[in-house]
Amino acid sequence: MTDTLGTTATTARTTRLVVLGGGVGGLTATRKLDQLFGNRPNVEITLVSRDNFFQLSPLLFEACSGVLELRHCAQPVRPTLDHARFVEATVDSVDVDRRVVHVAAPGRDYEIPYDHLVVALGATTNMSIIPGSELARTFKTAADALLLRNHLIERFERADVETDPRRRGQLLTIVVIGGGLVGVELLGELTAFAEDILRYYPRIRRDEMRFHLFEVSDRLLAESTPALGEYATRVLTARGAELHTSTPVKAIEPGLVRVGDKAIEADTIVLAAGIVPSGAVARIPVERDKRGRIVTEATAQSVSHPNVWAIGDCAAIPGPDGKPYPALAQHALREARAGGGATYDFKSVDPTWAYSLGVGFGIPILSVDLAVLFGPTGGLNPSNADREALGGAASVRLHF
User: Fold this and answer.
1) What is the pLDDT of residues 78-116, one digit of tens each?
2) What is the DSSP code string of 222-267?
3) Mind listing the pLDDT tens digit for each residue in 283-316?
4) Which among 391, 392, 394 has a CA at the least distance from the CA of 377?
5) Bridge partner list, 179
6) Is 29 within the bounds of a domain?
7) What pLDDT, on a 0 to 100 scale, did the predictor assign at position 388?
8) How far apart, in whole angstroms, are the C-alpha atoms of residue 352 and residue 9?
9) Are 138 and 265 in the same domain?
10) Residues 216 and 280 in one domain
11) What angle (nearest 5°) sits at the alpha carbon of residue 323, between those of residues 319 and 325?
12) What is the CATH classification number for the domain harbouring 263?
């Protein structure tokens, strides 16, 4: 059975604004629209998301290591909205001719009509690059963080009583595939996590732990500045991680990773080698680029359907140089807040990044509205030269 949510007839002179996705871009866009038009009786704003909470993804790394509680990574959506309606449902498809969104909730399907549609459905881990990717763990949700933490602790338990050296080595080997922001931050957090809990396992030596990171490009953090990549390399190397740049992974098999003519046995394999727009985006019949992102004007307006807008990881929004903005939360925030009414007007965005290298040191976001505290300072603190290379002193702030 399919029901209709919202105003069905345009004769009611109601402008229906529907936002798909409750992530950084979607929730920020909804709040901005709510602020601008929420108190107008002729404007109807609806946010559709599969979850009724907002996930602060940068905190998942610390939740995995136990520095933060998982509940600190999520905040309920409804208290953040004043007038906009929230619908917890999964987006199935969009009929751009009828201007209707088809969504599904437990036991019932719905149609949500719109006049303007903002697509902010994000992206998922790209499982098509490396054969056997389905055998690796991903790191996108709070569930991923919890499962990885439990998995790692269980590996320590098994290694503590394992007598076969080869199997023991496999249990204590961690492989992260992808040297971008997620892969680097995750590896940094895992090295700190292992260092912290080893005191509870006196039969396991620190030098038995093996950390491998594989990156296809010639340096870490290729999307960032060389100075930041070099700093990450120094910190991770100091923690004993083996960093393999210009090294594509050929295949993932149960319990091992194939690289060239070598096979690295590991019980923990995490895939962070790029993203693709979510499956729901692929079912929206608008123009997309070769990576599946919705192609837009600089205003975030679809080049093929003027009443469809796209922001965040699922959108290819050209910057001043003609290249799409990278898939970073800072851009999603600014894209969502950039406009008012039925149009968005983008300014040049100065790309800055933030991620942590474990509990020892949190690298700050500079000149960005959303900044996150990545654990207590101490341990590995940056030198003055490092601070200058990174663009300033380590200062952190958290607000919404």
Assistant:
1) 999 999 999 999 999 999 999 999 999 999 999 999 999
2) TTS-HHHHHHHHHHHHHTTEEEE-S----EEETTEEEETTEEEE-S
3) 999 999 999 999 999 989 999 999 999 999 999 9
4) 394
5) none
6) yes
7) 34
8) 44
9) yes
10) no
11) 60
12) 3.50.50.60
Q: Do both 325 and 211 map to the same domain?
A: no
Confidence of residue 146 (pLDDT cuts 50, 70, 90): very high
Query: Are 9 and 109 within one domain?
Result: yes
Amino acid at 33: L
Query: Tokens for 154?
Result: 């269980």
Q: What is the reported pLDDT for 161?
A: 97
What total number of domains does the chain contain? Answer: 2
**At residue 9, does pLDDT exceed 70?**
no
Q: Mean pLDDT, to the nearest integer, of 18-28?
A: 95
Transcribe 123-172 into DSSP letters.
Answer: EEE--SSSTTGGGSB--SSHHHHHHHHHHHHHHHHHHHH---HHHHHHHT
Structural domain boundaries enclosing 24: 2-125+275-337
Q: Please check whether residues 160 and 286 belong to one and the same domain.
A: no
283 shares a domain with 262: no
pTM comes to 0.81
Structure tokens at 231: 């700093």
Residues 100 and 151 in one domain: no
